[in-house]
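<amino_acid_chain>
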Amino acid sequence: MGEVDLIAEHIAPQYRLAVYLQSGTGQRPSEALAFSTECQRSGFVRVRWQVSAKAHRGDCHTSIVPLKHRTEGEYRDVPAAPFVEQEIDGHLSRWAPVPVAFTGLRGRRRRLEVFFSPRQRGKGVMPTASTFGYHFKKACVAAGVVDVDGKAKYTPGSLRHFFASTALANGVPIREVSRWLGHKSIKTTVDIYGHLGPVRPIMKVRRLGRQTPGGCYA
């Protein structure tokens, strides 16, 4: 079993899908946590919103905000491999989407049917990236995915790097990877990943034959 799958197996069940949205479509943690019914498309996902860092507060009226470096209404489409779509279906078989109302930056009231929202009382409206980070590190330790000091070997951001390195290793042009990641400019992508050639991804996935972001196979 690969490291991504080990983490997914040991994380709190409601966050399993977030692991695969990050590793399979390159979303930031805050973007994955804002995944809603409008994001689910046939063969791809539409990334349009992210969860605010203040979303856990009960008095937060802008719990969901536009993407980083983007204005309200802008989005990006990212190909979704079959295993990502399977994980989405699996999540929906256990948890129905939850309606969340919020005020957009332009003052307009909006409503999304989100996949990640605490069901227990007293935990605010939406989980944040820091909440997910806590569960992610806990899952790494439980799965034995740790460094020599026994601390979590990866962070949620490592899943996004896994997505990018996998795509580049399978021949996807760096300009396309940059668009999928939502970088402000291709220079950012080149600065981070430009040194990568045909290399092995930094994390491993479990089953051979899983489709990778570039439409190739690992």
